[in-house]
Amino acid sequence: MDLWSNLALGLSVAASPENFVFCLLGCLLGTLVGVLPGIGPVTTVAMLLPLTFSFDPVSGLIMLAGIYYGAQYGGSTTAILVNMPGEASSVVTAIDGHRLAQQGRAGAALGIAAIGSFIAGCVATVLIALAAPALGAVALQFGPAEYFSLMVCGLVAAVVLAHGSVMKALAMVVLGLLLGLVGTDVNSGVRRFTLGYPQLAEGIDFVALSMGIYGIAEIARNLEGRDETRAVRTRIGSIWPTRRDLVFCLPAIFRGTVLGSILGVLPGGGALLAAFAAYTVEKKIARPPRHFGEGDLRGVAAPESANNAGAQTSFVPMLTLGLPSNPTMAMMIGALMIHGITPGPSVIRDKPEMFWGLIASMWVGNLMLVVLNLPLVGIWVKLLQVPYRFLFPSILVFCCIGAFAVNGREFDVYVLAVMTVVGYLCAKLDCEPAPLILGFVLSPIMEENFRRAMLISRGDPSVLISEPLSLAFLLAALALLFVLVLPAVRVKREQALQE
Amino acid sequence: MIASKDVWAGLMFIAFAALFAVAGAKLRLGSAGVMGPGYFPMVLAGALALLGLGILGRAVAVHIVAGGARKLPLLESARVRIDPRPLLVLLVALVVFALLVGRAGLVLTTLLVAVIGSFAGTGVRWPQMLMLAAFLSALTYVIFVAALAMPLPVWPRGW
């Protein structure tokens, strides 16, 4: 069968000694940094991104993917042990997970999270192997109009998921799109918005942008009037869940996996929505329900499985359509582009060893996480006690070197500084940065397709709605917006009074 | 609070839109059929300005409905609490890195940047901080130079 031969090809790439080491290294580093309190998965990936550039694309990407799962797992560990979720998708894990930790059952929670994630990872890997080629084949038929509308739909969907005001999130997308246009216009060769700096001819450096926004701006925010030092004094307990725990959680793990896999594929979905949905479902169908929120293992198992499944299936739209569903996927696209690969439907056809190698490495990486993390949890707990005053200078130094090393020029460090200010301002004004990153990454492809669509139709914008698929994407985007904007536009008095 | 931040957010987006519009004013627009380099950016800048106006307008409307009833002046309610010190210290550290790294090399620069950066936090403890800086400097050498063999300036020039 095609599927098996493809997976075999992938395994042969992923299990090569070299790539195996990269995967291991990625998982380890990702967990190591992700576990540190105050450093979420996105920051982790942004910080470690430059490490992967000196390797060949396949190995670099495999390592980056490893960093991503590792960071996510590390984030859950922090959420469970100190109730400090590094990112939104582990907020739900913290609810029951931290309760369990307070009851002295942190070990059980960590163990079930690892096992749930592993099961979810296995299922999601097979699902990706099945779905991605099909999706890629469909996407190959897309013309520029369809492509443009798909991007619009994806960006709108991403906005929907950002919490807070829809208008602000939309504005962040547009700002990201504009920032993405800085540099030489491919069609005319004219330099745009470079302000006379030749270093901007190839655009704003992606690493500097993401490090500024997710790395340094975040430090500045964290340091403002924060009094830290939380000691972790929880007993971990046995890591291996008992048979009873496992049987008790297995249905929740599978439900979480299914939900997560589906939601992860949707643009704007990814891990976040998956975790929330899985938790809500479990809470609804759990019998007896009263334990939820007070330390129910299923409240850890389901969202953790879902968020891992979602994290993995979110690779599907990224690899096959070039559509990132979350900031981490945007960074993956950034990394691919630095290696000279434009993600899109042709990747599967042109670079099968990379595509299948990456998918197989996901499975390998998940296995490693279980094998590594259960015994190493003692070390992670120690890391949790590292105070922030040691962490932020480290982040600072790594971001400086990272931004500098990509092109070996000081200019990118100044870009990093400017992006820090932008990121800081946006964060202060409650504007989520994720839509900006997505817009930034998509902008060149969007413009290209928009131009081509208009060129073919001789400037008639109705081509966007006369092509049925394109119309469908735009209608979906419109429907999403409509649902969200309606209540937001009405100025609700009570909402205003809440302050 | 939500509304008052929106006043500034709206203004910020309008400012960004204006910035891009001005910086791109000389770019040829072309027509919808044959777009010049300025077409897409101008569409986006326009959209950003509209969104900014929308955010601002909504915030003002909220203010009139809610805050206005309490006789609050608009801009006073728009004040956002900012403690600029950490941000400024971090920015100084970044600039120092950019200025020095080419001349003084990676090892010394990271040492200095870690020391400067530490002042972004409160309550600097010198011995610990110096040890951290030395550790980071050594770590970056091991990772970026020894392990990854990146072509970076390591030692001060001329040594």
TrEMBL record, chain A:
Does the record bear Transmembrane helix in its keywords?
yes
Q: What InterPro entries does the record tag this protein with?
A: DUF112_TM (IPR002823)
User: Does Membrane show up as a keyword for this record?
Assistant: yes
Keywords in alphabetical order, please.
Membrane, Transmembrane, Transmembrane helix
Q: Where is the DUF112 domain?
A: 21-438
Segments spanning the bilayer are 20-39, 45-69, 108-132, 144-162, 169-190, 258-281, 328-348, 354-381, 388-406, 469-489
Kindly give the Pfam families that the UniProt entry links to this protein. Answer: TctA
What's this protein's name?
DUF112 domain-containing protein
Q: What lineage is this protein's organism placed in?
A: Bacteria, Pseudomonadati, Pseudomonadota, Alphaproteobacteria, Hyphomicrobiales
From TrEMBL, chain B:
Q: Which UniProt keywords apply?
A: Membrane, Transmembrane, Transmembrane helix
- Pfam families membership: TctB (PF07331)
Q: Which residues form the DUF1468 domain?
A: 8-153
Superkingdom of this entry's organism?
Bacteria
User: Which chain regions cross the lipid bilayer?
Assistant: 7-27, 39-66, 87-120, 132-155
Protein known as: DUF1468 domain-containing protein
